[in-house]
TrEMBL record:
This is sn-glycerol-3-phosphate transport system permease protein UgpE. Keywords: Cell inner membrane, Cell membrane, Membrane, Transmembrane, Transmembrane helix, Transport. InterPro entries: MetI-like, MetI-like_sf. It comes from Inquilinus ginsengisoli. Pfam families: BPD_transp_1.
């Protein structure tokens, strides 16, 4: 009886996982399929195989979207944001985990509120403030906005990792003559590195795909990000859907490759954070 139940449970699990995999992979497969077709073929039947593979879609997409420049802009913006969020978030999380805070529930509520608050509430004040300071089209200034948006999530996740590290390890390092800064950099950060990697991957994904802030504060042609330049490929009255599909594939490919390469560490980091919390 138990064997039958276990097999039934296993079968149901496989069915659910199969449905989930199909739901996740079907849009990507459809994107790859249509990136190799001409626009008339896509309009005729987007699910059909291409009659002639159109590799030139990728060359035209790369040139028309100016990805050689916009990819660099996105990479710089993403790298700056990851660096700022990981450095400030890890330091803040360490202090919050090690100091006894009587109003920790208020701090938690504040972090949750800032995480869920829509950016549209602050967009106009930020824009006028940045314009007054001459910070429009400044990549570093935009990375500061991203840091303010994503830091609460990073702090809450890393807080659970720092809490899980026994205090005896820090005390032993201090007894051996290490300073508090050395304990943080040389002892604590290596121990919570899975959490930092998880934060870096998630923040990198958000920063690379972010559109609203990037299109608002980076308006010069030489400052556009890859996502914004992809959006501009679509015309008002007509669009080359084959080129657009190829451009979309080019934009998502770096993130997909990075996630696939680091998926094990990412899953371990997320699972570790949930268990340690």
């Amino acid at each position: 009886m138990r064997l039958v139940e276990s097999r039934a449970t296993l079968a149901v699990s496989y069915v659910v996982l199969g449905i989930g995999a199909f739901t996740a992979l079907f849009p990507i497969a459809l994107l790859v399929l249509n990136a190799l077709k001409s626009a008339p073929e896509i309009l005729l039947n987007p699910l059909a195989l291409p009659q002639t593979i159109r590799w030139d879609n990728f060359a035209r997409a790369w040139k028309d979207a100016r990805f050689s420049q916009t990819f660099v802009n996105s990479a710089v913006l993403t790298a700056l944001t990851i660096f700022l969020v990981c450095t400030t978030g890890s330091a803040s999380a360490y202090v919050l985990a090690r100091k006894k805070i009587k109003r920790w529930k208020i701090v938690t509520f504040y972090l949750l509120a800032t995480t869920t608050a829509p950016i549209q509430l602050f967009l106009f004040p930020l824009y006028f403030g940045f314009a007054k300071l001459g910070l429009i089209n400044n990549v570093f200034a935009v990375s500061l906005v991203y840091t303010a948006i994503y830091s609460p999530f990073a702090i809450m996740l890393l807080h659970t990792y720092f809490q899980a590290v026994p205090r005896e390890i820090e005390e032993a390092a201090l007894v051996d003559g290490a300073t508090h800064w050395q304990v943080f950099v040389r002892v604590m950060l290596p121990m919570v590195s899975p959490g930092i990697l998880t934060v870096a991957l998630i923040i990198g994904l958000y920063s690379w795909n972010e559109f609203l802030i990037a299109t608002t504060f980076l308006q010069r042609q030489d400052k556009l990000t890859a996502v914004v330049s992809f959006f501009l490929l679509s015309g008002q009255y007509s669009s080359d859907w084959g080129e657009i599909m190829a451009a979309a594939l080019i934009v998502v490919l770096p993130i997909v490759v990075l996630f696939v390469a680091l998926q094990r560490r990412f899953i371990e980091g997320m699972a570790g954070g949930s268990v340690k919390g």
